[in-house]
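Running this now, will post back.
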Amino acid sequence: MTRPDTTTDTPVAAFDFDGTLIAGDSLYRFLRKTLAGPAIAAGLVRGVGAARMDRRLDRGGLKERILGACYRGWSEHQLRRAGEQFAAELLASDAPREDVFATFDRHVADGHRVVIVSASIDCYLDPIADALGVEVACTRLHFDDGRFTGRFDGPNCRGDEKVLRLQALGVDGRHLTAYGDSSGDDAMLRFAATPHRVGPRR
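Update: finished.
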């Protein structure tokens, strides 16, 4: 896929995903799509148990433990395929926010560099970004010998990590317009020259 010009003075628009581009939480939808109810419950119980055992676990660590309990040992092909199917269904559902996507589409039409920046996971955000013709910075799963290890490949993409990911892509905050809805987006909004706090969908 051809990317837009990425010189430092190119206008960039960064969009959070959950709650901003779509209503609600995509990760829980993915769990419900790919797992039976008892498997989700077991993953949540194991994650909470790990958090009680290790008080140092932050939000990202808890998410990593839950996803590890749910999907460890799944093949990369299996997770990528599940992510592709989920991505297509999510974009075709009523989850995308028409108001925010209208703004998203205007940035694309104006030739701006558009990046989805999200704590959600790559197996479905990669195909969503490809379908929309934009870039993505997100939480990535770690695979070894073609199997999910139960760990992340790098930090959870939330808070200050969103700014670090944008900087790694060569994004200059002076040319950045950012959209987010939660405390996990605060650092990105502070980094942006033009921040927009997105309210709940009516």
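The chain has one domain: 12-197. More later if anyone needs it.
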